[in-house]
Amino acid sequence: MKASITAHKDFTVANIDPRLYGSFIEHLGRAIYTGIYEPDHPSADEQGFRQDVIELIKEIDVPVTRYPGGNFVSSYNWEDGIGPKENRPTRLDLAWHTSENNAVGIHEFANWAEKVGTEMMLAVNLGSRGLDEARSFLEYVNHPGGSYWSDLRKHNGREDPWNVKLWCLGNEMDGPWQIGQKTADEYGRLAFETAKAMRAFDKNIELVVCGSSSPMMDSYPDWESTVLDYTYDTVDYISLHMYFENNSLHMYFENNDSNATHYLAKAEQLEHYIETVAAVIKTTKAKKRSDHDVFISFDEWNVWYHSREQDKAILEGADGWPQAPALLEDIYDFADTLQVACILNTFIRHSDVVKIGCMAQLVNVIAPIMTVEGGPAWRQTIFYPYMYASRYGRGTALNLAVNCERYDTDFATQVPYLDVSCVQSDDDGSLAFFIVNRHASEEIEFDIALEGFEHHTVIEDKVISGYDLSQTNSPQAETVIPQEGTRISLVDQRLNATIEPLSYRMIRLSL
Ligand code: AHR
């Protein structure tokens, strides 16, 4: 099969906010304890953080990390995690049916974030608590001193404020599973009043209001419309979440080739979701005669289904209240590598409206990085498309014209077999193409016309290809890894290459 692509220098989508490649760490399962924090681990630093994990996170280069939840935040008291560790209470976490000893709180997370080189994105509890807790937390974190909460922070060992810019107004408040779930009207009012109070403290912080927790929610997209009606001029982003399963509507698929083609069409649902919410934002802006802009913070996304069955006992309480049990430990396969690449391509192509993205999550919990307690840290199959997008997807997204054959599924029509995005680096002008072939049996020979560019050298060409779709990595063997690409030419501003069936390819060109 053949495909042709045109990239024109002046045909752009947007300048990408680097925070599009963010992530998320929740007090859930082993994300924190034995994930990023394990004082007895051989690689732990003086503060108890696993340096082997920090090194892997640095390979990805994660610009922003959302914390402390997720569902966890909706019954969390942030004050439990400050002060001497021996005085911190153990609480029962109602979201994940586990015990939380609060050994890690805001100070520890901030220290870790500094080591990793990631910006903090903090969520306030609008489930079991509300405005008062939010304003105290903000004062504790961001006020220089001379007030009750800021002086308590100093007393607890942190002199300077952390000046956190990004704040989430609760989490998934539309979800029946959420502690303190609200109707759109209840949440819209509360979010507005909380935003107003937080802005009274600092009008320059950036606020994220909850949108739908999935496009499958019955309340979607009325939820967005109602919530934005209350909050439009006081918030900067509306948060969306979406998790992908390798299934049709009612059953999981066997991992065979034609099912993978179907699975990989799911990014089309993501595209529809983004475009619908972008339309709601525009409509609300017009209704309010506002000159303020609201963007999308896609602050939870990933594949999540492999671990659902094995997690049932803990989530239903059959195991009591374990501390840091293995939960949501999806072991990803090669099909998921391709799915994650398609999701990231969708974000890049919509980077005019999606400004923040958080892969959920970062370590052990539906994560690209896994750890063995007392043992090694290792990269899952989904690590690489995330790493390449984060490293080379910063700059200006191009609006490509892509001509190739298409297919239909029971939930999407006219899905192009070739999924592609392209970013021009603001630093050195290099071009990065991120490409997935969704076809089960045919390779695609593609020809890219580079118009208005003067790129002459292929500086990097990586493929992830040829694996069984069920192939996974493990602590013993990282099997699914990038290899050098072959069969590529760049002559007279025309790039020609071939991508194998069900494969990923990342190509970088320099000036
Ligand atoms: O990321 C796992 C969970 O998924 C989060 O806690 C919640 O926000 C979502 O439902």
From TrEMBL:
It catalyses: Hydrolysis of terminal non-reducing alpha-L-arabinofuranoside residues in alpha-L-arabinosides. Keywords: Carbohydrate metabolism, Glycosidase, Hydrolase. Residues 299-503 form the Alpha-L-arabinofuranosidase C-terminal domain. InterPro entries: Alpha-L-AF_C (IPR010720), ASD1_cat (IPR055235), GH (IPR017853), Glyco_hydro_b (IPR013780). Its EC number is 3.2.1.55. SUPFAM superfamilies: (Trans)glycosidases, Glycosyl hydrolase domain. SMART domains: Alpha-L-AF_C (SM00813). Homohexamer; trimer of dimers. Belongs to the glycosyl hydrolase 51 family. This is non-reducing end alpha-L-arabinofuranosidase. It comes from Vibrio zhugei. The lineage of its organism: Bacteria, Pseudomonadati, Pseudomonadota, Gammaproteobacteria, Vibrionales.
